[in-house]
Amino acid sequence: MFIGTWWALIPPLLAIILAFVTKEVYSSLFLGVAVGAMLYSGFHPWESFVNFFEIMKDSMNLNILIFDVLLGMIIVLMAKTGGSAAYGKWAGTKIKSKKSALLATTGLGILIFVDDYFNCLTVGSVMRPVTDRYKVSRAKLAYIIDSTAAPVCIIAPISSWAAAVNSYVPEDAGITGFQLFLRTIPYNLYAILTLFMVIFITVTAFDFGLMKKHEENAAKGDLFTSGAEEFEQISEDEVNPNGKVIDLVLPVAVLIVSAIGAMIYTGYLGGATDVITAFSGCDAETSLIFATMVTIFFMLILYLPRKVVTFKGFMDSLAEGFKLMVPAVTILIFAWSLKGVGDALGLADFVGHIVGDNASASIFIPVVMFAAAVFLSFSTGTSWGTFAILVPIATAMFSGGADLEMMVISVSAVLAGAVCGDHVSPISDTTVMSSAGAQSNHINHVSTQMQYAAVVAAVCIVGYLIAGVIHIWWVVLGVSLILLTGTLLVIRKVTGAKQDGRK
218, 75, 88: which is closest to 140 by C-alpha? Predict the structure, then answer.
């Protein structure tokens, strides 16, 4: 009775509403999963109890959890050896302002494009000492990390995301998955506009809404605004005062090189014949675990002979790294479980039918697909799951190569909407990772980012309406960029006027 109907929307919406009302994410996610298990079991008490844990067990991605813990160990070791502190001091001699610190964080986020998980945690651990030095709020840092993770990956041909999209395109689409992905890049309005907005607010030093409050508090020395107690700091006594920049830079370099190398290798094992197809068919999760283990072994060789950390301290960092990642791991497990509940209740089928039945007018198809992707990704917390549901629907509307450009625009709208929904969803694993990487309270990150993302999403709706009529990517993108710039300038003028009025 509840499967494949609007009832499937109740668990994720309940979890999201409770998270914003209570400001407490663990119990909100738990209740969402519990209600979903009861709906799936027809409110049978014992079956609901059993299904709750069965869904949780089946939904967990152990590879990602292992990667999180190992990366947590790397972060702790960088701090203990004094590498993070040394990098912060060195960067302080090169980076002379808050603006340059934010631009450097943005640049590093764009540079690490192979995987969003990798991006979120690595950028946060490397740049946190620098942004703290210039009193950047943790919510602002989390926003920049999140905005240079999925939005960059979805327009990077060599990434785990490109591989995912490639795998969801049917063989009878009239175009290969990789070719389709390349053609969607200039039409991926949300990703491009988000990156533009990050650069705009950084260069102009302009913030609005809740983010403005966090930045004002940070300027006074309060980087967190709330939730600082969640994050245990490494004891000053444990940090080597003689740490060097190489203690951070070399491990990060090894991490990046070994991750890319492992992805290419696993791609060739899967039958690839060149680097591009290797990335398209790689085993990203196993590659990331391999990269973190190689990096830890490298750190052992780098640190122990120089006595920057004891062997006991080195091994203790594994437990400390796990402890560091406990908040992120807990939220991830519940978020995955909530997605599993949605799958069990047929949420994907329900949304898919609605989209298929109501996207009849061709010029409105991109907007409809964008809105559906935003809603589905926001509700489930997964952009990849949204790709899997809506990309085949978008390609089926133009099967056999009929109106190929419209197919490209529609798929682009799906990809953009999926990233947008994932970007603002409190149950998204990428959003959780960004909070963990920045060591920001999760609800603070979501609530501040949502206002910025809403502005971009509104412009995207107009952009896709234009795209439905004018199938010229540079016109659509150009108008969208002009519209976003104008919107931000208006917001700046209005909020500035209000500020002047209060004075």
Answer: 218
d(CA 411, CA 502): 46
Count of residues making up the chain:
503
Q: Which two tokens stand for residue 397?
A: 């509307």
CA 297 to chain centre: 28
Q: Is 236 exposed, middle or buried (0-12, 13-18, 19+ CB in 10 A)?
A: exposed
Q: Which residues in the chain show pLDDT less than 50?
A: 500-503
- For residue 503, the model assigns a pLDDT of 46
Buried b (16+ CB within 10 A) or exposed e, 207-225: bbbbbbebbebbeeeebbb
Q: What is the pLDDT of residue 459?
A: 97
DSSP 23: S
Residue type, 249: V
Rg (CA), the chain: 23
pLDDT for the residue numbered 167: 62
Are 480 and 497 in contact, with CB atoms under 8 Å apart? no
Check residue 234 and give left, alpha or beta (phi > 0: left; psi -120 to 50: alpha): beta
Contact call for residues 243 and 227 (beta carbons, < 8 A)? no
Q: What is the DSSP string of 130-166?
A: HHHHTT--HHHHHHHHHHTTHHHHTT-SSSHHHHHHH
Instruction: Specify whether the CB–CB gap between 431 and 422 falls below 8 A.
Output: yes
Q: Please give the DSSP secondary-structure letter assigned to residue 169.
A: S
Structure confidence by residue, pLDDT tens digits, 111-121: 777 667 767 87
Burial 359-369 (b: 16+ CB within 10 A, else e): beeeeebbbbb
Q: Count of CB atoms within 10 A of residue 10's CB?
A: 18
The SS3 of residue 462 is helix
Q: Quick one: DSSP state of residue 97? A: S
- How far is the C-alpha of 428 from the C-alpha of 426, rounded, in Å? 6
Rounded Cα distance between 116 and 154, Å, is 9
Residue 273's Cβ-count burial label (10 Å; 0-12, 13-18, 19+) is exposed
Q: Directed axis angle between helix 25-40 and helix 10-22, to 10°?
A: 160
CB-based contacts of 72, cutoff 8 Å, min separation 6: 320, 321, 322, 323, 324, 325
Using alpha carbons only, give the angle 22, 380, 73 rounded to the nearest 5 degrees. 75
CB of 421 closer than 8 Å to CB of 105: no
The amino acid sitting at 397 is: M
Domain parsing of the chain, residue ranges: 62-168+241-330
